[in-house]
């Protein structure tokens, strides 16, 4: 069989990136090939059409996330959004900011916070999480009582899938007059989020985690917040992020948000059923398997497992041409250091070494679930027999 006609591996790495919804692709294609105007060039109909498309996308993002269009700044993705929020917040205030940060945040948040600390723009206080990745809210209150300017706690963890109580966190932030930055990259379009009603100050998201394009994201900013921009020139987007707007990417993000708003509840319920079936099949075939994260409050498509004393890299090497799963976050894929998330929740070393992140989505089929379970079980048994 020709290599190009071989069956592709089953894809179960939706937390790294999702396949694009064909409806999103179709919508974007028109703005790549037909309506290619610059949204800032409003002296002709090409620019008018592009500007109108951006306005429509803004409304779709606002509707999904419970805010108003003026609170949305389009970016190149969540990493830029995170940097704009954290750097922009600290630089706008002139004095060193006291930041309380969860130890299980994405590396984009952790690295930015640590860079600000090295630049003497921030002092970091590390929050506490339990073995399921849940924030210790009592300790958060203690930290805030001692004085905190900014809280950084994600909406849902990108490795173990634990969902945070963002309403309670936002209420604590408000009580102590602290800003709240919420990385919703993994959560947006999967769980309901109401940005304005919750009282979050800044929120980051990325299109490619919800069936949209890579390279397109947004930062939600409350109207009374003050950020120093990272990118200057032209004063686009109320001066908060200059540069010619990526109209196809913005359209793709908007369309993805519209579809998530319409289909999220139904899709996530179906995804959870498939995830639970996969979990049951693996538990039946692999002895001592451990399910990580908060089993009562996790993303529907998340199944983070540990197989005691297994070398996860050996298992991945066996199955990589048949099944796409990961040993951790995509940002650290291939990095030999143990996952900082699994270390922070104090997972034993023999479980960290045998950890696998399986993440499914709306395009995962029942046949995929059956085949993946069989492959993982058979591969585990093969490796175990050789030990």
TrEMBL record:
It catalyses: (sulfur carrier)-H + L-cysteine = (sulfur carrier)-SH + L-alanine. Its cofactor is pyridoxal 5'-phosphate. InterPro entries: Aminotrans_V_dom (IPR000192), Cysteine_dSase (IPR016454), PyrdxlP-dep_Trfase (IPR015424), PyrdxlP-dep_Trfase_major (IPR015421), PyrdxlP-dep_Trfase_small (IPR015422). GO terms for molecular function: cysteine desulfurase activity; iron-sulfur cluster binding; metal ion binding. Pfam families: Aminotran_5. Coiled coil: none annotated. Keywords: Iron, Iron-sulfur, Metal-binding, Pyridoxal phosphate, Transferase. Residues 10-370 form the Aminotransferase class V domain. PANTHER family: CYSTEINE DESULFURASE, CYSTEINE DESULFURYLASE FAMILY MEMBER. Belongs to the class-V pyridoxal-phosphate-dependent aminotransferase family. NifS/IscS subfamily. This is Cysteine desulfurase IscS. It comes from Dictyobacter aurantiacus.
């Amino acid at each position: 069989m020709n290599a190009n006609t071989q069956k592709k591996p089953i894809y179960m790495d939706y937390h790294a990136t999702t396949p694009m919804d064909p409806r999103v692709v179709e919508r974007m294609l028109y703005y790549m090939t037909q309506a290619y105007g610059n949204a800032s060039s409003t002296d002709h109909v090409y620019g008018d059409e592009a500007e109108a498309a951006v306005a429509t996308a803004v409304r779709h993002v606002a509707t999904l996330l419970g805010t108003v269009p003026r609170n949305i700044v389009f970016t190149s993705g969540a990493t830029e959004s995170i940097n704009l929020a954290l750097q922009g917040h600290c630089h706008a205030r002139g004095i060193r900011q006291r930041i309380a940060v969860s130890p299980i945040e994405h590396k984009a948040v952790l690295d930015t916070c640590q860079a600000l600390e090295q630049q003497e723009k921030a002092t970091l206080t590390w929050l506490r999480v339990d073995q399921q990745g849940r924030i210790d809210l009592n300790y958060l209150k203690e930290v805030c009582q001692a004085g905190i300017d900014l809280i950084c706690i994600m909406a849902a963890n990108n490795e173990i899938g634990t969902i945070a109580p963002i309403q309670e966190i936002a209420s604590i932030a408000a009580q102590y007059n602290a800003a709240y930055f919420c990385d919703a990259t993994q959560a947006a379009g999967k769980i309901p989020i109401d940005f304005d009603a919750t009282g979050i100050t800044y929120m980051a998201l990325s299109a490619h985690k919800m069936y949209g394009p890579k390279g397109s994201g947004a930062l939600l900013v409350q109207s009374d917040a003050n950020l120093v921009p990272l990118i200057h020139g032209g004063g686009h987007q109320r001066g908060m992020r200059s540069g010619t707007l990526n109209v196809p990417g913005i359209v793709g993000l908007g369309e993805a948000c519209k579809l998530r708003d319409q289909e999220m509840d139904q899709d996530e319920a179906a995804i959870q059923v498939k995830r639970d079936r996969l979990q049951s099949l693996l538990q039946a075939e692999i002895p001592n398997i451990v399910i990580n994260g908060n089993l009562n409050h996790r993303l529907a498509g998340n199944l983070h497992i540990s197989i005691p004393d297994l070398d996860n890299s050996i298992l991945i090497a066996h199955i990589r041409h048949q099944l796409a799963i990961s040993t951790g976050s995509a940002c650290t894929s291939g990095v030999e250091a143990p996952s900082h998330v699994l270390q922070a929740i104090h997972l034993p070393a023999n479980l960290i070494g045998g950890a696998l992140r399986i993440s499914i989505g709306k395009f995962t089929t029942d046949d995929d679930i059956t085949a993946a379970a069989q492959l993982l079980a058979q591969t585990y048994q093969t490796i175990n027999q050789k030990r």
